[in-house]
Structures are given as C-alpha cells and as structure tokens.
Design a protein that fits this description.
The complex is a heterodimer of chains A (361) and B (347). Chain A is built from 10 helices and 14 strands. With 361 residues, chain A is α/β, with parallel strands linked by helices. Chain A has 2 domains: 164 residues, Rossmann fold, CATH 3.40.50.2300; 134 residues, Response regulator (Rossmann fold), CATH 3.40.50.2300. The longest helix of chain A is centred in the N-terminal third of the chain and has 34 residues. Chain B has one domain: Orthogonal Bundle (ABC transporter involved in vitamin B12 uptake, BtuC). In chain B, helix 2 runs parallel beside helix 7 and helix 7 crosses helix 8. A two-stranded antiparallel ribbon of chain B has the order 1-4. Chain B has a two-stranded antiparallel sheet with strand order 2-3. With 347 residues, chain B is mainly α. The longest helix of chain B is centred in the last third of the chain and has 37 residues. The chains are: A alpha/beta (361), B mainly alpha (347). The interface between A and B is large, with 38 and 39 residues.
Chain lengths: 361, 347
C-alpha cells in the first residue's frame, strides 16, 4: 500500500514537472516569436527558406546508419562527416549494432536530448522511427533521411542515392545482357520489409513488363535478411529449386557477396549469372575470378556528402525541404529538391573488370 | 541399465528421424535437394554451428553456459582477416592456430570468472558477450578496417574454406573430427565423466573429490578454442568479414544444443545429439525456402521446432522419471526416500 502510494505521488510529481517544462517551453517559444517573427516555431512546413542565409557555425550533426558496423554505411557516413567538417561543423556517427528500428529509436531519443542540430538517418523501418523523428523536428532539429527513407512527414528531406527507378531498371538491363535476354531469373533481397529494396524490386518488375524483356521470367524473390549464412542458404535454395535458373539479381551488398562466394565455389559458377548492387572492394575477387560480370552502385561517399550538406542547409534555414528549392552541395554542385522533399544524387555507376580497380570503397 | 541407455540413444534416433523426414519431404518437392550438391550444402551449412554446439555442450553438461560465443567467433574471424591484411600470404595453419589461441584466451577469461570468482556463467558470459563485441568494434574502428573482403585474403585460405575431399567439405571433416574427439573424451575419459558429475550435482561432485573448478575452467578453454576455430572457418567460408560476424549466433547454438537433447540444467546429453540438433535446425532453415514457406514465417517455424523439441524432451523425461520411480519402489518397497528426479538420464 505504502509502496503504491509513493509511486502514485511520484507520478503526480512527474506530471507536474512535465507541465512546468511545457509551460517553460511555451514561454520560450513566445519570446522567440517576438524577436524573430519569421521563425515560426509551429509546424516545420510553414517555415520560409532563406537561400542566402549563411551556414551556421559549429553545427552538431549526427549520422544514424541502419547499423553501426555496416561497412557500406560507414563509407556514407564518412562522406557526410567530411561535408560537415568542410562547413565548420561537428559530425559524428552513432548507431545500433543490429539493424532494427526499435534500437534506432533509442538513439534518436538520445540525440534529441543532446541537442543536435540535425539528425541524418537511414531508417530501418519507415514508420517505426517516425514518432521519434517527429518529436525531434518539433524540437527544431533538422531531420534528413538517406539510403532508406523514413515516412515523408517524419523528415524534411530524403537524399536518395539514385533515382529508385534508375536503380531498379539498371539491374534488369544488366541481368538481361548477361543472360542473353532470355530465361528465368530470381531476386535475392535483404529483409522482406526493407524499404529501398522493395521499391527497387517494384521497378524491376515494372521494367520486366517491357516487350524487350518478354523472354525473361522473374520466378522468385528470396530474402537473405542481410545475413551471410541466411543469404548463402537462400542462394542454395534458389539454385536447387529452380534448376533452369539463368541469373540472380541481388540488390543488397551482403546478399550479392554471399551469393558470389557460394557460386564461385560451386558447380553453378559460369552457368548462373549474378548481378546487383555491391561495393567494388567486396566484389573485386568475384569479378576477377569470373563469377560476376558486372554490377552497379552509386558512390556512397558522395551520398553521405550530399546528405551532410542537406542537413547543414536545413539547420541553417537555407532550405526547408519544399519542392523546387535549390541545395548548394559544395563540390557536387547544386541539386533541386523534388517532390516529397527528395534530393537525388545521380545515376548509378556500373563496375566490371575494366574499371573496378579504379575504385576503392 | 540397458533400458535407460536405449532410451537415451532414442533421443539421437528421434533427431535422425526428424532429419530424414525433413529431407524426404523437401526432396519429394524438389529432387535436387537430395542431390550430391544438396547434401554437400547441407553439411557445409551445419559445420560451423556444429563446432560451436560441441563447445557449448561441454559447458552445458557442467551446468554452465556460454552466451559470448557469437562475439568470440566474431573476434576471431576478424583476427583472421587482420592477419591477412598484415601479410597477404600468412599460412592457413598459422591463422587457424592464432584463432584458436584467441578463442581459448577468451574462454579462459570467462572460465576464470566462473570457476575462480564463482560468478554464474549466465551473467559472466552475458557481460563478455558485450565486452568481446565491443573489443571487436573498437578494433575495427581503431584500424579503420570495417570490412575485409575476399580479395584481401590468400587464395589458399579461401579454397580451404570452400574445398572438399571426396565430396565432403573440409569444414564438415573438421567438425566430424572435433565431434569424434569430444564424444570419445566425454564418454571414456575420467575427466569427461567428471563433467557430467559436476553438472548432475555440484555439491556431490565436490564431496567426491572432483576438482570442479579446474574441470569447468578447462571446459571453458576448450570450448573457447573450438569457437575460435569456428570463427576462422567462418572467415574462410564466407570470405567477407566485418566486426558484426556471429551476432546473435549464441541463441542458435543454445537452440541446437537443447534440440539435441542436452539438458539445460546440466548432467546429461551428448555432443552427437548437439551436432545432430545443429544439423536439423540448419536443414530446416535450408528446406523452408524450397518448400515455399514465406520469409516472414521462417523464424516462427524455427522457434516452433525448438518448442516442440523441448516439449518432447520434457514429456520423455517425465515418463522416464515415473518409470524409474516405479521400478525403484518395486525393487526396494520400503523406506527409500532417494531423489529419483536426480537420477534421471545420465548419458
């Protein structure tokens, strides 16, 4: 009884404290409004962009990848941190060791408490991270998503590696060339609910409806969960269950390297084509031993660089994320913000035996 | 006595039956699942987890557990990659030995805390799960090498991981050799039998003069060396390493051990059972996509298999206990108050 009463009084205290905090915040909001009428602290969308506003000094910008040890995202974030430092700010990379949305949420909350000026996130799930991101935006923290988008109303800008459409269609083009435009193909994806992979797969399916691909049949989409062992086993299952399989498209770096490793040491080498998205370092061995002919990817460092610039511009009020605004992105030049706050890096690069040694990432 | 023994080996037989059923059903749906390449793949997939399961069995038998296996495996896999970065032509045997030594060192750390400081293994290894993983991440970020790729490792190391002799993968041969040695030692050596005694009843074991601390410590070291070996094999098999290798693997290992009939409270079970458990679980994972089970459901099926195994286990135990109790009361009708639960199945 005593225990529960003390708990109740603690709750009451917490509520009272929360109320006081709210009142203080409201009061602060009031003063800001008085001194700077343009900066409306209400909904973020009502803000007005000032393209000539200088980038603020000492911006604190945090990059939150899907998981901290994903080598691909480490490269992206390195590019982003370089951009932030170029602008005189302070960039850092933090994140969970597992690619789950719930662990990202606790990182978002911590970053909000640390009063970061901007959060740059690759969402593990578009909706699960949305409430936490909205809370961050309500506290005037700029939110940029990259690589894998969050719900459009939970971020201001999405920096897309390449037009999703280009990425999807490029992969079909590559596999079609490699299998001679004819035969059964399968897709080895990441998790079944990965935002970017699913978008690309939709575009791949759409590309396949074109008459020039009439002889190519997509028989299965398998999911390797971005885990080596699982991707291996799914590759084996594809090869076993579809004896006349001609090619595999794996739009994920973990999937394509696991599949390449399996195929390179199996009797299927040279009989089944493999392409998709991978990093040159990871795929070098398999390009050289002939397992893989050609694959694609954008430059991840540039992606991070662009996201870093977008975050700094947002935090400084140069852009708000509205369609048609122009982002000045240092050495990348300018990018125009598209529909739903989307900024596109550029078309994907393809890698093959001729050019792979020019890249190191 | 014969009855007890036949009931125990019944556990292994039931896993083999389940395995045959899974393979038969999947093979019926898709004949290439039971081709030479299909079996080759099944054994290859199970080999690494089987090595981990052998090490884990040694510990579970003594009423301990090692939750840090995934992290130790990640650390040793990363070590092998780093050795190739330092010298591209490092001989395979050196990498293997270094990996086993690092694994054994991690095991010794766990073992010292458990056996000397007397902290429960569950807590110690839960702690070292994060510590070792932290060391792994720290190492990766300090050196800036987040990923080690196939082209950075020596070709002989990669072909060691993917190669086979007479159609049997190297990895499987290694796992079978480890199984044979561990199985023989547990069954025939005095120290092996003492592990069971420690797990059955720690107090009684101590009173009987068994050096429990020493035995548990050695079990941790040996298990650690096996995990280290598994980490090196993971590196040579997958050819891509980052600091998150092996994350979450501890649960798969514990699942394999439990499905394999090793009692989680110690004192009973065999390494053969644990290895078969590992083979069964990885075979189910391989079979599900061929059977067309949607990806969303695959983990649920894995979990259901685990629950089924535990329930069966419990049912068999209860029946066995009841039967032993009945037998004992027939043999000694009066005044026997011995703890029958305690004398249930010992391998």
């Amino acid at each position: 009884m005593i225990h529960s009463r003390s708990r109740r009084s603690r709750v009451a205290l917490a509520v009272a404290g929360g109320g006081l905090a709210l009142a203080l915040v409201a009061a602060c909001g009031g003063t800001t409004k008085d001194s700077a009428p343009e900066a409306d602290t209400g909904a973020g969308n009502e803000k007005v962009a000032d393209p000539n506003a200088p980038i603020k000094e000492g911006l604190k910008i945090a990059f939150l990848p899907k998981e901290i040890d994903n080598p691909y995202e480490n490269i992206v974030d390195a590019g982003g941190i370089a951009a932030v430092e170029e602008l005189g700010g302070e960039g850092k990379e933090v994140g969970p060791s597992d690619a789950s949305a719930s662990s990202q949420v606790s990182y978002i909350n911590t970053l909000v408490q640390q009063n970061q000026d901007a959060i740059v996130i690759a969402a593990n799930d578009p909706n699960a991270v949305a409430p936490a991101l909205k809370e961050a935006m309500a506290k005037d923290i700029a939110v940029v998503s990259y690589d894998s988008d969050a719900a459009p109303d939970a971020r201001q800008v999405f920096v897309n590696q390449a037009n999703s459409e280009d990425i999807g269609r490029t992969q079909i083009k590559m596999i079609s060339e490699q299998i001679g435009g004819k035969g059964k193909i399968a897709i080895l994806s990441a998790t079944p609910n990965a935002t970017n992979q699913n978008t690309w797969i939709d575009f791949m399916k759409d590309e396949l409806t074109k008459p020039e691909y009439a002889d190519i049949e997509l028989v299965k989409v398998a999911y390797g969960d971005d885990d080596d062992q699982k991707s291996f086993q799914e590759t084996q299952a594809l090869l076993q269950s579809i004896p006349d399989l001609k090619g595999i498209v794996s739009p994920t770096t973990v999937g394509i390297s696991a599949a390449a490793r399996y195929i390179s040491s199996s009797p299927y080498k040279g009989k089944v084509a493999l392409t998709g998205l991978g990093t040159p370092n990871q795929m070098r061995q398999f390009i050289k031993d002939g397992t893989v002919e050609e694959f694609a990817l954008w430059d991840p460092e540039q992606l991070g660089y662009l996201a870093g610039y977008a975050a700094a511009a947002l935090a400084s009020g140069q852009i708000t994320g509205a369609e048609g605004e122009v982002l000045k992105a240092g050495e990348l030049g300018e990018r125009t913000i598209g529909k739903d706050g989307e900024i596109i890096l550029g078309p994907p690069t393809t890698f093959n035996a001729d050019n792979i040694d020019k890249y190191d990432f | 006595m014969n009855r007890v023994r036949s009931l125990l080996s019944g556990r292994e037989i039931s896993i083999v039956l389940a395995l045959v059923a899974v393979v038969a059903v999947t093979g019926a749906v898709n004949p290439s699942f039971v081709s030479a390449q299909g079996f080759h793949d099944l054994f290859l997939n199970a080999s690494i987890i089987a090595l981990l399961a052998i090490g884990q069995t040694l510990l579970v038998i003594t009423r301990n557990i090692d939750l840090s296996v995934g992290s130790v495996m990640g650390l040793t896999a990363y070590l092998s990659g780093q050795m190739f970065i330092a010298d591209h032509d490092t001989p395979v045997i050196v990498v293997v030995l270094a990996g086993m030594a690092l694994g054994a060192a991690c095991g010794a750390f766990n073992g010292a805390l458990v056996a000397i400081a007397k902290v429960p293994a569950l807590v110690v290894t839960l702690g070292t799960l994060y510590v070792f993983r932290g060391v792994d991440y720290g190492w990766a970020s300090a050196t800036g090498v987040h990923q080690i790729n196939a082209d950075q490792m020596s070709p002989s190391f990669l072909s060691f991981g993917s190669g086979s002799i007479l159609g049997i993968p190297h990895l499987t041969l290694i796992a079978v050799a480890a199984l044979a040695v561990a199985g023989y030692a547990l069954h025939n050596w005095r120290s092996g039998r003492e592990l069971y005694a420690i797990g059955s009843n720690p107090q009684a074991a101590r009173l009987a003069g068994i050096p429990a601390g020493k035995r548990v410590f050695s079990a941790f070291v040996i298990s650690g060396a096996l995990v280290g070996l598994a980490g090196v094999l993971h590196a040579s098999y997958f050819g891509t390493i980052n600091a998150s290798v092996g994350t979450g693997r501890e649960l798969a290992v514990v699942a394999a051990v439990v499905v394999g009939g090793v009692a989680i409270f110690g004192g009973s079970g065999t390494v053969l059972g644990a290895v078969l458990g590992a083979l069964l679980l990885t075979t189910i994972t391989s079979a599900l996509p061929i059977l067309g089970v949607p990806a969303f459901w695959q983990r649920a099926v894995d979990g259901a298999a685990l629950l089924l195994a535990i329930s069966l286990d419990r049912a068999v135990m209860l029946r066995l206990a009841a039967r032993l109790r009945a037998e004992r009361s027939r043999a000694r009708p009066a005044g026997d108050t011995g703890d029958t639960e305690g004398s249930v199945p010992r391998a």
